[in-house]
Each structure stands twice: as C-alpha cells, then as structure tokens.
Amino acid sequence: MRRYFAFLRDCLRLSFVGDWRYHAWMTLLTVISLVGLYCWCQQLVHGLVTTGMTDQVSWGAYIANFTYLVGLAAAAAMLVIPVYVYRNMHLHDVVIFGELLAIAVIIMCLLFVVVDLGRPDRFLHIFQRFNWPVSMLTWDVIALSGYLLLNLHISGYLLYCAYRGRQPTAAFYVPFVFVAIVWAVSIHTVTAFLYVGLGGRPFWNSAIIAPRFLASAFAAGPALIILTLQIVRRYTSHRVSDEALLTLRRIIQAAMLINIFLLGCELFTEFYTDSAHTASARYLYFGLHGRYGLVPWIWTAIVFELVGALLLVLPVSRALPTLNTACVLTIFGIWVEKGMGLIVPAFIPTPLGEMVEYTPTPQEVMVCLGIWAFGMLLYTIAVRISVPVLGGQMTCAKRYGEPALPEVGPGE
Amino acid sequence: MSKPYELGGGDVADRQGPGLTRRGFLRKGAAAMAGVTAVAGALSPLRELKRRDLPTLERLLQKHYKEMTPDDKQAVLKRIAEEVERRFGVRPTVTDPPPLPGVEYVYALNVSRCVGCRKCVHACVRENNPSRQPEIQYIRVLKMQKGSIDVETSDHHYDPPLVPEHDSYYLPVQCHQCAKPPCVKVCPVEATWQEPDGITVIDYDWCIGCRYCEAACPYWARRFNFAEPTIPRGELNPQMAYLSNRPRMRGVMEKCTFCLHRVRAGRLPACVEVCPTGSRKFGNVLDPDSEVRYILEQKRVYVLKEEVGTLPRMFYYFDERGSRYHEPIAPVRPREPEGPSEGGGQRS
After folding, report:
1. Interface ipTM > 0.85
2. For chain B, domain boundaries
3. Which residues, listed in sequence order, are joined to residue B194 by a DSSP beta bridge?
4. C-beta atoms of A200 and B142 within 8 A
5. What pLDDT shows up at residue B148?
6. Looking at the complex, does the CB of residue B35 fall below 8 Å from at least one CB of chain A?
7. What is the CATH classification number for the domain harbouring A68?
C-alpha cells in the first residue's frame, strides 16, 4: 500500500517536470481551463441564460460535444480489438495510449453533462432516486462511469506493474479488457438511445442513429489517436511504429466508408419520402422558412468527410502528411455532423412548429474550450507519466535505490 | 534520449539535486502564488451569489416529495412560506392538497369556438406565479391556417387589432397531462411523476435541470428557468401549493398543472374560468354526469399527435354545425340513442 502511494506521489511529481515546451503547453491549457471555469462560474450565478439555449432549443453545444466525445472514448476499443482479439502486435505498444485517452475523454463527457445541468448542486439526487431502468440517462450514467472505472483499472494496473518492475498477471486485467470492448460499444449505443427513444422528435427517432454513432466514432477516434501517437513519438522516447499508424488507417478506412453509407441511407429515407417529418433535416441541409443557420456547417462537414474518405482509400494516404490531412478532415467533419448537426436540428422547428435558431454565446464556447483544454491537460499528464514508467525509467527500484526525487512545487 | 525537448524519464532525477536553492524556492513560490491567484480569479464570479442562492443544510437534507412524512411536509411548507415572505414581502398560504379519490381530470377545448384572444394565457400567468422576466407562459395559442392541421404552418406570434381573423382557426396548446407521459419516463431522478388524478407534477426542489423532459415532450409544454425568475411584488398570487404554483427557482423545470391547487379544492383552472367564449371545459371524467364526460361521449373529439402514443388528457372538439342548421336527418344506419344529445345521431 505504501508503495502504491509512493507511485501516486511520483506520478504527481512527474507531471510537473519537463522542458520549457512542456511547461508552455501545460500553462496554456491551464489558462484556457481556468477561463472556462470562470465562464462556468458566471453561468452558476446567472443561470443557463448565459448560454444560447432557449425553451425552443433546449440542448446545444454542451450536449453536442458530449455526444461526440462519448464516441472518442468508445474508439479506444479500436486499438484494443486488434491487439487482444487478432493478436496484431503493431499496436501492442500503443494500446495503453488509447485506454488513457478513453479516461481523459470520459472525464470530459462527465464535465459536459455537469455544465449542462441547471442545478449541479443537486447532482447527488441521482444516487438517492435513480430512475433505472426506465430513464435512458440513468443507463448512460452506469455505462460511462463503468467504462471510466474499467479503463482506470486496466491502465492503472499495467502502469503500476511497470513501476514495480514485475510482469502483469493476465487474470487481473485481460478479462477486464474484454469486458471493456463490449462496454465501449455499449456506451455509444446507450448514448444514441438517449435521443432515439424520444417519439416526439422525428429527426432522432430513427433506428440507424446508434450504428451511425458507432461508425463515426470508429473513424474519428482512431484518426485522433493517429495524430496523438505521432506527437508522442516526436516528443518522447516511446517508440511508435509506422505499421501501428497504418493499421489504424485501415480501421478508419472501413469505418469512414460505413459511416458515409449509413448517412446516405438516412438522407435517402428523409428526402425521397419527403413527408412532413423531414422538417428538421430540410432545415439542416437546405434551410427552412428562411432560416439557414446550420446549412454552411453541415455542407462543410460533408465535403470534409467525403474528401477525407477519398484520401483514406487512395494509396496516397500511406504517406504520413496525407494521412494526417485525412485525419483532420475526418475529425472535424464528424464533430460537426454528429455534434451540432445531430443535436441542434432536432429542436428546429419545435414540436409546435416554431422556428427558433440557436447560436452558442461566447461564454458557452469558452466553457466548451475550457473542458477541451482540461481534457488535453489530463491526457498530456497521463502520457507524460506513462512513457517513462512503461520505458522503465521511473520504477520503484530506482526510487528506493536513488534517494529522493527533487521536491517540485505546484505551477513550476 | 538525445532530443533537447526530451520528456522521457531520465530528467526526473537529473534535473536537480536534493535540497532547495534560495532562487529555486522563490521561483516555485511565485509560481504557486500565480496559480492560486489564477484559480481565485476564475472562481471570482461566485462572489455575486446571493445568500438565498446558497444551499442551507435544511434544503440539502430535504427528501424527495414522495419520501416525506407528514411532519417533514409541514416543516417544508413552513420554510417555503418564510422564504416567499422574505422574497416578496407577502405572507403566502402554502398548502399541499392531496389528489381526490375517484377523480381523473380531463380537459376539453372547443376549436370551433376559440377566437384566439389569449386571455387564458394571461390568466394562467397571474394564477401560477411564473417568471415575468424572462417571460414564461404555459399556454401557447397557435393561429392555424385554413386547410391545414399541420402545426408547422401555424403562426405563434399573431398580433392583429381584432380576433378572430378571417380564414384562421386557433389551437391553444398546454400540458396535455398524458396518461403515458414521455417526460416522466426520461427523468433520471424521478423529479416529475403522474399523480393518481392524472396530473403530472414536478418537485421543484428535486429537479436537477437536465432538460431531458423538455426534449421528450411532443407538445412543447415544459418550460425551463434559464435565469432567476422575477415577479413584481404586487403580482404574486399568495394562494400556492407545493406541487403547482409556489415560486420556482433558477435552473428547474415547470409546466401547467391544471391549476392543481384550485381543482383539488373544487374550483376550475384559471384558464377555464377566464375564457370569454366558453371554449374551455374541465372536469372529472370518472363522473358520468360531468360536462367533460358528455363532451367525450357526444362531440367530435380528437387529440393532438395521436401517433406519438402519449394518450393525452387534453381533448379538442368541434361543434356539429349540421345539427345547428338542419333538421335532424335519419342516419344511414340507425342506432339506439345513448343519452341526451344535441339533435340527432349525426356522428360519423
């Protein structure tokens, strides 16, 4: 136990140590996080009136980001499956970065839910009267916190074993890895059911949303991981092979094509039928009753996705710069398509046919950026710690062999 | 390991020996100070919180409505009365009338009579203590286009000098008190539920403000307090109930409760009482002699958005014009008359 606390203490210390680039990056993220916190405090004082949401469009950027991020978290499974199911050893050394990403991203998800609440001070009511199994939101609470715990356990256990310099016991983590794979699918399915289950919102009330969510998540998630791994490779001693990146590329290829196919199925059903139920889709893609707020966004997203998909299937994307471009296009395209493009139009027009558009306020945007920065901060720390631990540079033996690490104060 | 910006492990032990230099100590102290100042700055808006915004121990420990003992309830009603008096300078009567046995309320609205004057909207506001700024109203009157029952072609913000307007009809919408309410189903904390008399209520002290119910409602009947609700002092209705019109707080949902505090005391909802054309009818559907029972049995009745399967308790109906202007006509397939009727079995 004492060793475990020593491990945690070392991790904490290590997160403050680095060269000037590391400090500049961490300071920048801290500042953005604090600005976000400032804006959220304003929201606590004045209410959600500081956001662009209204009774007409009652969910906005917070829930849109939440939805997107649940997908990123689920995408960690796309690193785990090749390694543990198909024994693909290219990804073996990087699989833990996917799990760490899942941890940081789930924490961001929970933060996005908390900032969306009108009464975060009553959050504990969820434990006192838990409307399970009727409310899909309670399923989501279970799914997300379970996934967080699974990933904390798996990566925490592997890191601690490396720190103690011993071989991990398969029985203590491999079963959890397989549970986490199924769980990853469940978090995104349950999140989709949150919307799909509402009969009064025809735009969401479609069985294809959950498969679309998974397909887009398994494209956007590995795309982000490709970029992240290259940063890890550039700035740390951890080795990431090109084969690992190219394995991920093949996963994105398949997921992206399925995603575009499913989107096409949805569009055909909406527009060929052309019934009254397509009002939200018409608003999103072509504008309705003189309102065009989301039209430029969604077409940009679709062009990005199509170009990204084209680059990915062509051999040119075996070259890293092209692959990176395709990844950025994929990440941004999907962020728009399933964030703002899925949440906001379901509210426009309202069930009573009123047209009210939604634009996030600067405060709302800052809260979102703050959470993104905080998530990146967490992930940077996680990578910062795990690289030397896994590389055997920070171990229990070294700690007790060489006396005392330098005392490092906060904020250095 | 040779890169200048190496973050890998070696630097931990190499950077500095044990023990602090004076300069290092000052630098770290300054950095820590900057950090603390920045966090304090980020939290600074919280200073604007008023005292009544801060949760008291009493409020934190308050149980869910359904878990309160009669003693708990009395204490809570007393606390609410004191808070309202402090806030509005009026001593209110805060009650918690229970549902009456053998009663299920339904509402019937005559679309052929409604002229769209919106008197119901404002009587409701005077009765139910919703926020005036920002403005919250439970009833929305839709001006419908001739030839369409599609709400999407309706006008919510019509403002002519006189109503009714030619070629229009009006469709007032408020909470339908559904028998299968989607809002109740989705609430993660059971802050909203259906009472035995059919009214769906909200415990404003339990709601966490996630707005899932607002997204679930197919009738757009729920309203959220995006800001601190305000009511001018003289306009507060001091007759209030826990589950209906007591003043709400920032960050919680509210909606029409069929004026629960009035109807459970044998009175009519404010919107029914004020309607100048008699378009609004309300009563106990389980009572065979009630007006609403007569309407449901005899009139041409429909519900809004039947296809979403919510089984609303708000019924719309229209007068049988034929029966007013024509002598009774023998129906194609005669049937036994079932009770008092307005001039002959023209029901189709």
Report:
1. yes
2. 116-259
3. B200
4. no
5. 87
6. yes
7. 1.20.1630.10
The shortest C-alpha distance from B100 to chain A (Å) reads 26
A400 touches chain B (CB under 8 A): no
Is A406 a domain residue? no
Q: Would you call B150 and A200 a contact, using CB atoms and an 8 Å cutoff? A: no
pTM: 0.91
Tell me how far apart the alpha carbons of residues B211 and A58 are, in angstroms, rounded to a whole number: 7
Mean pLDDT of A256-278: 89
Q: With beta carbons less than 8 A apart as the criterion, state whether A118 and B211 touch.
A: yes
> A246 lies in a domain?
yes
Is A200 inside a domain boundary?
yes
**pLDDT range class, residue B337, cuts 50, 70, 90:** low
Question: Can you tell me the distance from the alpha carbon of B311 to that of A404, in angstroms, rounded to the nearest whole number?
Answer: 71
Q: Which domain holds residue A153?
A: 6-119+134-401
Structural domain count of chain A: 1
Encoded tokens for B87? 């806030």
pLDDT value for B9: 41
The answer to whether A360 and A60 have CB atoms below 8 angstroms apart is: yes
Residue A322 pLDDT > 70: yes
Burial of A130 (0-12, 13-18, 19+ CB in 10 A): middle
Task: Inspect the interface and report whether the beta carbons of B10 and A393 lie closer than 8 Å.
Answer: yes
- Is A170 inside any structural domain? yes
Q: For chain A, give the number of residues.
A: 412
* pLDDT confidence bin for B348, thresholds 50/70/90: very low
CATH fold of B116-259 reads Alpha-Beta Plaits (3.30.70)
Rounded mean pLDDT of A14-42?
Answer: 93
Tell me the residues of chain B between 289 and 348 that have a Cβ less than 8 Å away from chain A.
305, 308-310
Nearest CA distance, B298 vs chain A (angstrom) = 28
- Which residue in chain B is spatially nearest to A20 when comparing CA positions? B5
SS (H, E, C) chain B: CCCCCCCCCCHHHHCCCCCCCHHHHHHHHHHHHHHHHHHHHHHHHHHHCCHHHCCCHHHHCCCCHHHCCHHHHHHHHHHHHHHHHHHHCCCCEEECCCCCCCCCEEEEEECCCCCCCCHHHHHHHHHHCCCCCCCCCCCEEEEEECCCCCHHHCECCCCCCCCCCCCEEEEEECCCCCCCCHHHHHCCCCCEEECCCCCEEECCCCCCCCCHHHHHCCCCCCEECCCCCCCCHHHCCCEEECCCCCCCCCCCEECCCCCHHHHCCCCCCHHHHHCCCCCEEEEECCCCCCHHHHHHHHCEEECCCHHHCCCCCEEEEECCHHHHHCCCCCCCCCCCCCCCCCCCCCCC
User: Residue A114: pLDDT above 80?
Assistant: yes
